[in-house]
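**Fold in tokens:**
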Amino acid sequence: MTLQLYNFNMKSWIAAARPRTLPLALASIILGSFLAASHDPLAAGHFGWNIAGLAALTTIFLQILSNFANDYGDAVSGKDTELRVGPRRAVATGDISKEAMLRGIIITAGLSLVSGVWLLVVSLYGAGNRAFYMLLALGLLSIAAAVGYTNGKRPYGYAGFGDIAVLIFFGWVGVLGTYYLHTLTFRPLLLLPATAVGLFATGVLNINNIRDIETDTLTGKKSIPARLGLRLAVRYHWGLLLAGMACAVAYSFLTDAPLLSYLYGLSFPLFVLNGRAVATHKQAVELNPRLGQLALTTLLFVVLFGLGQVL
């Protein structure tokens, strides 16, 4: 009986961690590392496997922290109802108690902090205290953002600011931060591929919010689709996808990249297919597969973009 209960709890915790969200979270780390690998290896800083590994580990902890915190926050606030058509939520359904989930949040926040500090020590050795403390502050902000999305007196996710947070952390911070940790340099043009990944990640959130538009409206969650309505939310989705693709092309054009670097263009038809599916869906449940499809397409884009840079 004890073994069965243990197995049941393990399955619940794994489900609450939502491992399917991890590839999207890692996309920015992979792209930042690819860009660092294309950096001049004779320069002062360049790609390091240890930095890539620690950055990935820290990101995994942060994403799991975010998923735990969202599960907890939505249950405590009453935003999760029986009408929700998304994946099963652990706290709202009673699979995991509120107290246990709160402990899980504290533990994963601690693991994120330890891993992040380890990453900074390894990557910034000899770079000076100023860079260390600035990036430590950014790491603490990332932890606060993961928890504050659906928790606290004024959860920013319920006010419709989740999109900009995803763009910042899944795009700019993830790509540019990883590149800096490898190379200790910053290139302004890298904002373009970083923005592309951030916009695609925002598209995943937008599909989630379009799916939940009716329940979010009923519970007072003011996501972008809940504010805009379905028709404009679909147009917004197209805007995210097209703008992301345009940023990638603009980067290649402005850097006079060779034809091979446009390899990422092979992923563009999949983004178009995603946009068409979101625009033509009839039932909210039909959007669930589109979340994973866009996340994996973003990962494919990142791999193809990175290969085009290093080959």
